[in-house]
Amino acid sequence: MAQFRHTARELLITYVKSDGNLLKFWALPATALEVVKNLENHYAKVAGELDKMSVYIRNTQTPVGMKLSVKSKIKRQWCRARVLSHSGHSDILVQLMDYGNEENISVTDARRMEDRLLSIEPQAIECILADVVPPGTSEWPPEAIKFCESHLSYQTLSCYVVSSYLSIPVVRVAKGGESEPFVQRLINSGLALIKQEQPVAVPPAVSYKVNTMDPKTAHLVKVSHVESIRKFYVQLSAAEVELQRLMDAIQKYVAQESLALLNVPLVSAACLAESDHLYRRARILAVLQGKCQIFYVDYGYTETKEFQELRAIPQYFMTLPAQAICCSLSSDDREEMRLVTKGYHLQCFVLGYNGDKCIVSLRRHGQDIVAPRRISPQMTVYSVTYRKQKLNLGSSIEVTVSSITDITEFYCQLLCFKDQQEAIAFKLNSGYIFEALHINECIPGQAICVKFHNKIWYRAEILKVNHEQDIEVFFVDIGNYEKVSLANIRKVNSELLNFPCQAYKCCLYETGNILNGVPKEEVLSLFQELTLGKNLKAQVQAFTEDNSYVITLYEMDSNISVFQKMESKILTASTVPVSDVENLFITSFTSPSLFFAQFEKLDSNLLSEMQEQINELYQGNATFSKRNLKYVPTVGNLVCAKYEEDNQFYRALVISFKDSQFEVFFIDYGNRCIVPLYDIHPITKEFIKFPAFGIECSLESYPPGTPVDKLCSLMLENSIQARMIAEKDNKWLITLTDDFPNNVAILELLRQHENVVPRPIHGIGGFQENRTRKGSKYQPKINERDEIQPRLDMKQSYKKEQVSRNQMPRESESIVKTKESKVFQNYDVIEIPPNAYRNVYVSHVVSPSEFYCQIEEDSPKLLVLMKDIEDMYTFLNDNDLKLSTFVLNSPCCAVFQEDGVWYRGQIRKINSNSCDIYFVDYGNTDTVPSSKIKMLKTELLSLPPQAIRCKSFNIVPKTGSWSDADIEAFQAMTLDKSFVAQFVEQDDHGVYSVNLVSIGKLQEDVLNKEFVDLGHGQLADSSKILVLNSHAASSNLTYKSLDVKIGSTEPVKVTYGLNPGEIFCQLKCYNKEFETMMLNLQDYYNKVNKAEALVDRPHPGMICVAQFFLDCAWYRAEIKKVEKTTIVVFYVDYGNCETVDRKKIRCILQDFTLLPTQAVRC
User: Fold this and answer.
1) In this structure, is residue 950 part of a structural domain?
2) Which residues form a coiled coil (predicted)?
């Protein structure tokens, strides 16, 4: 609202609240009303779609700060909102972005916001009411808020910004037609007091550091300004180079930047002022009638300037102390002093102090200035320098790092000049006697020879002269800085001047993200370890103004730079100390030997805080977008990477990369995905201080027959208590404790399978030799939403568009069955344990001995994949992603000829101008022209092939092969239909033998048996009974609804009431049947084996039987929400919802679904 600062504006007040002693309101300017109206109209149109969209389950899926579409009870519509905080497991506090209201909602009433709505700024402007404070307390009373709401809410007021507080405008408001300001009415009602104005604090003037001279030593100085011999100013010769660099930097800054005016002309304030066409550092001495007397702190003279001529000085120009030191002599011969001291370096001895003046004695050649000795014209000043040789930008050279100050300043010697270096050392130490140097000849930049501690002579140049025992020098062939005495310095002969300096000043390319917050000592130590004294390759990138070469260093036989090695070692999250026994929360599960767990002893709020900070920094930050243009991480780097499913950034470790696609491991959640380079940024120091919130784990031992699917359902997104045995290969071996409640079911499952040897699991389409479990359905993968982190879930980024299943590629009748390939190269695989149950959809049928099924629960992932393929391949040019060669069994993307749509495939046969393509997600094969076959992008490999090859269990043809009538009958019974499938076993070719049961039917209705009973085929082994576990099949049963006739009068019993607008009743006409069913229900579930009836994979919408906590009786129910250790159920015969422990849920028999649900909502 800065634009409203000096004029009144009409605002519509939408929300009022108190914030400590501040009374805040949110308002809409006239320009925002149209935008808000358009948003409301949009949400009204898509409300039906939003109601049907999949919901969030836990509030940890919606991190603080995330923007969502929410169903607001206050506004009675869908609105844009931002998450403020979490409450419990499923509630969130949000702020409506376009109104300001804060509201507690269930996470089930939140949806992912459309991308185009994310870009629209919040329309409600936060304001603070001016001129009033709470009456006698530090907080506003509720009566004051109600008063404001009744008089301001949805009123159009005139608002005038008078100031700001933490960037929030402080506003006066007035209602049109009223004779007194609104705040006056608030004060007259006794609900507020008038705010007393506070005096404005004047900020202290920023001052320079003071330069001093040690009275115990002689100093080499130069007189910069003389007022009298009682007051003159000198500069230390030792700082002459630094002052010149500062002056150069100031002039460059002035030339490139727009200088800001000085805010306030305060006495002693630091500033920049122009003198003799140069900007110099200055300090204000006095201010009178708009003019300022200023003192140039580096030179000692004063001038009078208009205030408008002074400029603000950047803080980094304040580092060097003021160079002009005020001094005084005892003689009055001012003219003599000017003559002698003009332009010469002098020896200065401090005799004492008089206030801020130094009482000094100045000498040249050992005599006082007041009795000077004229310089002999025969005496010349000895001044020579070494020759420096330049490197070619872009060149690659071999170097040895000879000296290191830090990674922004180190020195390298070229290996190609090794002969020169040896020649220099020989000439320096071959017995030649060098001429001594006088103190007056020691001038900064002078070329010299220096004998160092090891009694060896080196070439050097003078940097600073403090006194005869303290001369700072730089060794030009090595690159180190030392302090030496005059006795160890000699003149250099002309022969040694012929050799160029052998040490090249360098700085490491792209060091910002290492130095940012990491202790310098740690960085320096690691850099020395990797480089000092070693032969390396160097790529010259640039040349800086301080004469440094910007280089990238590599080891001789490696393409990984030294910087990348340092980064991977330094930028590592700290590990959490592990106790003997730990409570862990499982966030990712691949197998009993590989799963990921977070430490429950770490505060989850700390993780949320870190995630909020990460996304505040990286989301839409132009600075990081530009930095990312040069940043290319390597394997082992800790980075911040964006997860495409929710567009949020997380800490991640680079696992591998190909071109610009990087596989990363999210270190706090355990899942992996492929991320493009532009979504990866270097991690900064504030995110390294947070520990790694989890670890990879493995059960120390487990029975080989353990059903992985069942074990996953018990462990994933659950808490366990583990005894930490040992760490091996960055993975902790653990055992489960016996006395922790959540461990009981897991331990019982392991004990049940101690003597069970499972059949081999090889995956789809053929035997999978030496395959990893990377593609296991329990491993988090790209575009999957059910195997992702529990505390901060990553959501689907694509809309779930309804796609007709008969759009899939289908093999034409004339196509001959192709031979199944033995291996799916480069595709991951789906693994299904023996005797496991899955909901399936039959996508393609060749015969009862060869048909293909898709797992129903993975269908959203396939829809997303197909949407990705459509976006990537529909508009490609002929040469885009073109395959140069066709390789048998290699993955590809091909057009199905009947519908012209692109699908994932595998090359099964190569013809002259075409290939036979097996469509891995549907099971059919088609001959496709070579021009319609493209390379499959890496990111499309992550979802395993969805078509699982199956055959009917224990069914064979009556003759040698299936007849056309048998095949047509089987197609009619199965194709494009959904079933419950029992995956009984898998043969050596990877084909699953299955029993199929139609949805909602009992176990005796196995389709295999029905098919034989119709006269098709026969049982291969009559001793094998076709029976499914009754409880396993129950996951697809549904309740019948009660048929209530409109207009009829029925006696009822009210069973539950939420409010007068929503109650539940039972019809008394069903009392007898209902009581009988309830008695049978109690009798059965009090006797049934818990392990047999336990719900295997609970999910919303599934029907079940649940125990009520008050009477411990069993009741029919429907699952509404699945949480970590509890399940929210709706009791279908009574109408109430309750949260129930997972152990109190059982599978329902079909016998108990025959009676319609009894609770009628009224």
Assistant:
1) yes
2) none
